[in-house]
Specification:
The complex is a heterodimer of chains A (179) and B (393). By secondary structure, chain A is mostly helical. Chain A has helices spanning 2-17, 29-40, 47-56, 71-93, 118-133, 139-152, 158-170, 173-176. With 393 residues, chain B is mainly alpha-helical. Chain B has helices at 2-15, 19-27, 33-45, 54-64, 68-76, 79-93, 106-116, 148-156, 160-163, 184-190, 197-207, 212-215, 237-255, 320-329, 332-346, 354-366, 371-379; strands spanning 130-133, 164-167, 261-264, 267-270, 297-299, 317-319. In chain B, a hairpin with a 2-residue loop joins strand 3 (261-264) and strand 4. Chain B is globular. The chains are: A mainly alpha (179), B mainly alpha (393). Chains A and B meet through helix 1, helix 2, helix 4, helix 5 and helix 6 of A and helix 1, helix 2, helix 3 and helix 6 of B.
């Protein structure tokens, strides 16, 4: 567990400090929460989400300096992403196919995730990329994410599989590093 | 098991850093109009503008026409500009510990409202008004002895931009008003206990962007230094003259502005026009020959040498917090500080050179110190967000 945590922190450090670190702007706790609300459409009045946002804000970057990105901060962002994803997926699952907004447009929530066609899986990845990264997903990313999906799907139900995929993408560096 | 899953997600999430976009953005040689619009929106609101959002097309159209400020104004219409960006700016200003986590309060609400309504920034230190929520939200009333109104407004997440209204007078219970300097929050943070010197110190810090070590000056008049300041600390008068005097001459000269104000029983209280707060003359035994505070008169001694750069105009002495606020608000230092704060809020990590600061401050002053306009021209300045390549426009 400690080893994985160190790997994660090292990966962040390599990505961020290795490049144009001086110009890097990290979102602060308000921006991170607002970004998740905006992207997922989850209501700001959802008490579970609001409580969790409040609970995690001290672990998130306060002013938006790169030095504030720590293991606890990354974990907090991941946990936040998880709860927002869970709420968004649950909301979409209750809406009939064809009536959803811009995510899960092709997902049949009655169908086990392991039986999703490649086309459906790719559409989910594209939609999450648009939602959280505001760009197209690359071929390499697509391949890796589909591999993740296929690894998780056999052992998890549809909601959980989508949540894991969503959380993975929503908690990526792209979502909390502004530039 | 859950821990391992979570950490695996973290690792995966980190590895899916940004694909090509992060590195490309850092090294891009050209910026398209759409990219500029997205960057501008992100800077102003703190959240991304989705490609399918109609505002992106609106902003892009303005940018294509060279109307950068108009594009910025579209972003400034977002709720997030108020609930995220302006709160990020005003929350630390409203607290002694300058914590970004400071709960929503009347200071922040008034700042947000003043920006929304494009008020003259100088009224932030002189105005007889504040902002609160509309009655139909059913919140506890905004009172001098409680911040609950503002805490509940923020907790409701109903949108700060559209739910703030301006009320005047600022407080029926107080015979004086000086904008943020007589907000309940300011009183709680800087008029509680102590000697009211903190109110002056933080005025310099928050509205002139100057800490006391930058303002202190040698050889200033002793006349207003109060009786609680030891003239021979540790038996050494040189310590007083070389250290204590340099700050106290400034602080004590100005603290009279708040002499009739105190924060007690969870509220700002005014002593009436015949008396001053007892704290103003406490510990008078330390140096009985020192200045005795009898009224709310004040004198500004921070006017020479390096303090000339503050650019004071108008009266350098007066009575009460409003006149004090007026002096501060009409200084060049105030204008510069407001511009600096706006720039740092929407242009993080960008270089604010002195010539650029002068340029932006000149414009701010020439356009009647309008706050909303200031954010529009600061955020859309080419030094804030790199403009699109001309060939692509």
């Amino acid at each position: 567990m400690k080893k994985v945590s160190l790997v994660a922190a090292a990966a962040v450090a390599t990505v961020l400090w290795g490049g144009t670190a001086q110009a890097i702007v990290v979102k602060n706790f308000r921006q991170i929460a607002a970004s998740f609300y905006s992207a997922t459409g989850v209501s700001m009045n959802d008490p579970d989400v609001a409580a969790f946002v409040k609970k995690t804000e001290t672990r998130l970057p306060q002013v938006g300096e790169i030095e504030e990105i720590s293991s606890p901060a990354i974990l907090a962002i991941t946990q936040l992403a998880g709860i927002f994803c869970e709420k968004m997926i649950a909301t979409d699952a209750a809406i009939p196919l064809g009536g959803r907004r811009h995510t899960h447009s092709q997902v049949d929530f009655e169908r086990p995730a392991r039986l999703f066609t490649r086309e459906v899986k790719e559409s989910v990845v594209r939609e999450y990329a648009d939602l959280f990264w505001n760009r197209e997903v690359t071929e390499e990313e697509q391949a890796s994410l589909l591999s993740t999906f296929d690894t998780v799907a056999p052992g998890a139900d549809t909601l959980r599989t989508l949540k894991i995929l969503c959380t993975t993408m929503a908690s990526s560096v792209d979502t909390y590093v502004s530039e | 098991m859950l821990c391992r899953t979570l950490l695996s997600l973290v690792t995966l999430g980190v590895i899916f850093q940004t694909g090509p976009s992060f590195q490309q953005k850092a090294q891009a040689l050209t910026v398209t109009n759409t990219e500029y619009a997205q960057k501008l929106f992100l800077r102003i609101s703190g959240v991304s503008l989705r490609r399918s959002d109609p505002r992106l097309a609106e902003m892009t159209a303005h940018i294509e026409a060279g109307e950068f400020e108009d594009a910025a104004r579209i972003a400034m219409e977002s709720e997030e500009f108020y609930s995220v960006t302006l709160r990020n700016l005003s929350a630390p200003m409203s607290a002694r510990d300058e914590s970004p986590l400071t709960v929503f309060n009347d200071f922040q609400a008034t700042f947000l409202g003043a920006v929304r309504d494009n008020l003259d920034a100088r009224t932030l230190l002189t105005g007889d008004y504040r902002y609160e929520a509309y009655d139909d939200l059913g919140l506890p009333p905004a009172t001098l002895d409680s911040n609950l109104h503002y805490e509940e407004l923020a907790a409701r997440s109903v949108g700060l931009k559209r739910n703030l209204r301006k009320v005047s007078p600022q407080w029926f219970e107080l015979p004086v008003a000086a904008g943020l300097l007589t907000s309940r929050t300011w009183g709680e943070q800087h008029l509680s206990a102590g000697t009211n010197r903190r109110a002056v110190e933080f005025t310099f810090k928050q509205f002139l962007c100057r800490e006391m070590p930058e303002v202190r000056d040698r050889g200033l008049p002793l006349s207003r230094i109060r009786r609680d300041v030891d003239r021979t600390p540790g038996g050494d008068a040189d310590v007083f003259n070389n250290e204590c005097r340099t700050c106290h001459a400034v602080l004590d000269g100005l603290t009279g502005a708040f002499a009739r104000l105190d924060f007690k029983d969870d509220r700002i209280v005014h002593t009436g026009n015949l008396f001053v707060a007892a704290k103003m003359n406490q510990n008078s035994h330390v140096y009985p020959e020192g200045f005795r505070v009898l009224d709310d008169s004040w004198v500004n001694h921070a006017t020479r040498n390096h303090n000339e750069q503050i650019g004071w105009t108008g009266q350098l002495k007066g009575s009460g917090p409003r006149a004090f606020g007026e002096m501060v608000a009409n200084s060049r230092g105030f204008s510069q500080c407001m511009v600096q704060r706006a720039f740092r809020a929407v242009c993080p990590k960008q270089d604010l050179s002195q010539p650029l600061l002068n340029e932006l401050t000149d414009r701010f002053e020439s356009e009647e110190y309008r706050l909303n306009d200031m954010f529009a021209f600061v955020s859309s300045h080419p030094s804030c967000v790199r403009r699109p390549d001309a060939a692509l426009r």
